[in-house]
Amino acid sequence: MSAPGSPMSKKNSTPTPRLRLAAPRGGHLLPGGGPAAKGTLHLIPVGLGDAPVDSWLPADARALAARLDTYIAENAKTARAFLKQVGAVRPIQEITIHTLEARTDASQLREWIKPLKAGAEIGLVSEAGCPAVADPGARVVDLAHAGGHTVKPWVGPSSILLGLMASGLDGQRFAFHGYAPVNPEERARQLKTWEQQSARANQTQMLIETPYRNGAMFGTLLASLRGDTRLCIARSLTTPTEWIRTQTIAQWKQGPAPDLDKQATLFLFLAA
Amino acid sequence: MSAPGSPMSKKNSTPTPRLRLAAPRGGHLLPGGGPAAKGTLHLIPVGLGDAPVDSWLPADARALAARLDTYIAENAKTARAFLKQVGAVRPIQEITIHTLEARTDASQLREWIKPLKAGAEIGLVSEAGCPAVADPGARVVDLAHAGGHTVKPWVGPSSILLGLMASGLDGQRFAFHGYAPVNPEERARQLKTWEQQSARANQTQMLIETPYRNGAMFGTLLASLRGDTRLCIARSLTTPTEWIRTQTIAQWKQGPAPDLDKQATLFLFLAA
């Protein structure tokens, strides 16, 4: 039996030999033998646009974000706006914000997360949405795992997940591809390849585009995909201009084009 | 210019001909011409396990869920437990809960969502996590789109998204496959195919398993994948027994197996 109060005690109905038991959260066994300090890298989602924080962040995540004094952020300016939104408990200029760029080297990242060894808590935030999904934050998470530290993901907004839920397309199997190729011929060819993959594996396909090119992407999707393929447009999720619609390519061709200009949009499709 | 107070007015800096302007949320134009009533299908995530609601649901989603009087649910019992958690404003026995099964036919679903035409609000909830992702709820969403109704996704917990964030694997490109084949040979072959796809497209692969078979799946992953492929185990997310770790297959082989028995687990891997 596990010791009373152990996080494992509820779920283990049969005794497990001590040696085979994975350490609970915060007490990883390092390859060297001794337990690591209880440092935690908190992965904290930020908003997707103009919307009140209580509509997209759980109260506990908000309270945690408000009390941390060290952040690694994709963009220091948006990180400070986020700290204002959550009501940071100390003056924002006293909060350490390290700016993470694609070119930031690993030795610098290791330096930033060093305080985890002494039990510190550090927040990781993206420019919008969930950190380490479609942004460079995954490198920081990877180093935290390598050091045996606890990585704690918090619930928050992701346009990919919200779009998938709201599309009505099959959520049992899906793939997110990021950006399609820019060259028009390669782009059309790639969309057709993804459509074949969708038909073969019954897999919903998801992609994004640079906001000013959204209208062009919509046109290419209509020109490249089959008439019976269902396309979902999920625009400006969580904000006042949120707009989500799913129809077949043939139906989209009959109606007016949606206004997607400069608005973050997720494109999803599923072949018939 | 858009009318003052229009949700479009902030983002559109240049005037757009009225005909080309997509209708804002709640005012879709139906193929027939007239605007639909402002019925809304709310997609509301529920918890993944034993955890306080304020740690995984934004306050606004909680307040909305507490006031709705009609739900479509994958499981009526867990839906009632959720309504208790969020503090439903009326007695739970007075709240209508339709139970959605894989075999529920489309005419029944259409009957359930009929009140949307008169402007009603209906909640859609899964047994755990986000509705319409890896559950039968997508059919209801699809019918709501077909009727021109507003579909509103709310932020909440998804083991797929939380696991992806916390894995440290590449979040730029990823695929979720649901369950692997049960037959041992097919399973090993499928895992290898996904590993090749991961190497080719630099795409993180995600799968789940029936909880009592998690230990066996862990063993098959170790036996099937290459030594330098990174594997993340994300167990019991958001609950007190949450445990997340990423290592190479070679490293996993050296240490003790994690205890995954009867605990919801997401498996993620990325080929080197």
Automatic annotation (TrEMBL), chains A, B:
CDD domains named in the record: RsmI_like (cd11649)
UniProt entry tagged with the keyword Methyltransferase: yes
Region (Disordered): 1-34
Alphabetized GO MF terms: methyltransferase activity
Alphabetical keyword list: Methyltransferase, Transferase
GO biological process, one term: methylation
Name used for this protein in its record: Tetrapyrrole methylase family protein
Upper taxonomic lineage: unclassified sequences, metagenomes, organismal metagenomes
